[in-house]
Amino acid sequence: VQLQASGGGLVQVGGSLRLSCALSGRTFSSYGVAWFRQAPGKEREFVAGTSPTGGSTWYLDSIKHRFTISRDNIKNTVDLQMTNLEPEDTAVYYCAASLKFFQTTAREYDSWGQGTLVTVSS
Asked: So what's the pLDDT on residue 60?
């Protein structure tokens, strides 16, 4: 499966942004998909994940009341709606796919998109 992330940009504190991950490949619907982020000088961090059907989602505790992951298996996209953004959300955001479900560590994900930069300015 191949992934391509988009939608990043510059936003002010308290603003919103929607990231999108476009997936291709015949076995797309077999994969769980997650969003990770990596801030400068920090390790890559799990943000949110969704099961192959989109029926189950899981989140990093610190963002679960502000971010929402959703999946459209007709359009082959997985979106991350981010609201009430904070400077600490500044990072490169990556989408990734795994045949294992409910994973939160990067090593469990086999395929990665190229990343999209989100900058939250104060």
From this structure: 96
DSSP string, 7-39: --EEEETT--EEEEEEEESTTGGG-EEEEEEE-
> Looking at this protein, which amino acid is placed at residue 111?
S
Amino acid sitting at position 43? E
Query: What average pLDDT does the segment 89-105 reach?
Result: 95
Asked if residues 14 and 36 have their Cβ atoms less than 8 Å apart, the reply is no
Q: What is the pLDDT of residues 36-52, one digit of tens each?
A: 999 999 999 999 999 99
Cα atoms in the 13 Å half-sphere on the side-chain side of 105: 2
φ, ψ (nearest 5 deg) of residue 28? -50, -45
Give the integer Cα–Cα distance in Å for 49 and 46.
8
**39 vs 27 pLDDT, higher one:** 39
Helix, strand, or coil here: 108? helix
Mean pLDDT for the stretch of residues 98-108? 93
- DSSP assignment string, 38-73: E-TTS--EEEEEE-TTSS-EEE-GGGTTTEEEEEET
